[in-house]
Inverse folding.
């Protein structure tokens, strides 16, 4: 009698397949962005940090350049003016950008043309914006011409003068608000397009008013876009330079302007880099604060 033949093991077809190869397409797509950031951001930033903390003669680490920066006669004014312009301009830009975005989101008749008109300042450079508003605020500018035509003033008013530095700062703030509010508006409009209409309709079904729907439904869902707009605008406000130079020269010193003057006028790249590192520290600190304060908290849902 022949012994029984052992049953042959059956192997699943999936086990015979080779392990899948790692798809490198996402990495190739990210490579141009990584190269761009490395060449135009990481490398210059590392060079600026090295210039700020190194002795050009011996090459050793030193804090001499930061000490010289802090002893500069314009140092405290530059920090104060930069923080003041940022503290006034950024909240107003966020409020105006949010208001315009909410108006556009209602889809009223002509809202597309209204959006295009509000977005015009995006295509205008900082220098051009400064020149536009300089032509408004100078002694023979459009503002004095309009006030004179209305009979509000008898002779031209000198808006931009050393005696009224508060007017100088106000003119810079107005220029910055007009120039950069459109950036905030575009970010918030894009964020609103991602919010499902179901949330608003559900709030209306439960009897929530428009104001309560905005505060408790719309704004929490818009938090990531608000966070992005705040970070971008605050960092760019710390770097405010061209509009300040056009409107006031050096009468209103700011950190970016002092970095430029130390590099071009005094021929001292080390102190200029120290100012750049200071701007970097301010930008990193405020970004960390925004990320912590406006972070999305996950809900603990019982399973």
């Amino acid at each position: 009698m022949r012994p029984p033949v052992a049953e042959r093991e059956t192997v699943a077809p999936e086990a015979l397949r080779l392990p899948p190869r790692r798809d490198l397409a996402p990495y190739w797509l990210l490579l141009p962005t990584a190269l761009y950031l490395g060449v135009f951001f990481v490398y210059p930033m590392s060079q600026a940090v090295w210039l700020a903390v190194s002795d050009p003669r011996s090459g050793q680490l030193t804090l001499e350049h930061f000490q010289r920066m802090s002893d500069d006669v314009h140092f405290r004014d530059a920090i104060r003016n930069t923080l003041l312009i940022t503290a006034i301009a950024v909240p107003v830009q966020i409020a105006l950008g949010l208001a315009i975005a909410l108006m556009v989101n209602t889809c009223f008749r002509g809202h597309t043309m209204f959006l295009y008109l509000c977005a015009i300042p995006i295509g205008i450079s900082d220098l051009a914006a400064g020149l536009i508003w300089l032509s408004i605020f100078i002694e023979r500018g459009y503002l004095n011409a309009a006030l004179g035509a209305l009979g509000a003033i008898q002779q031209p008013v000198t808006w931009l003068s050393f005696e009224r530095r508060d007017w100088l700062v106000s003119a810079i703030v107005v220029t910055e608000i007009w120039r950069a509010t459109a950036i905030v508006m575009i970010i918030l409009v894009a964020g609103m397009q991602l919010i499902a209409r179901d949330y608003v309709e559900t709030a209306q079904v439960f009897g929530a008013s428009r104001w309560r729907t905005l505060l408790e439904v719309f704004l929490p869902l818009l938090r990531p876009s608000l966070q992005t707009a705040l970070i971008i605008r605050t960092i760019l406000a710390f770097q405010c330079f061209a509009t300040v130079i056009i409107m006031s020269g050096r009468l209103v010193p700011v950190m970016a302007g002092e970095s430029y003057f130390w590099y071009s006028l005094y021929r001292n790249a080390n102190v200029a880099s120290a100012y750049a590192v200071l701007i970097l520290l301010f930008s990193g600190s405020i970004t960390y604060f925004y990320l912590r304060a406006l972070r999305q908290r996950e809900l603990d849902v019982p399973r």
Observations:
- Residues 61-292 form a domain with the MetI-like fold fold (CATH 1.10.3720.10).
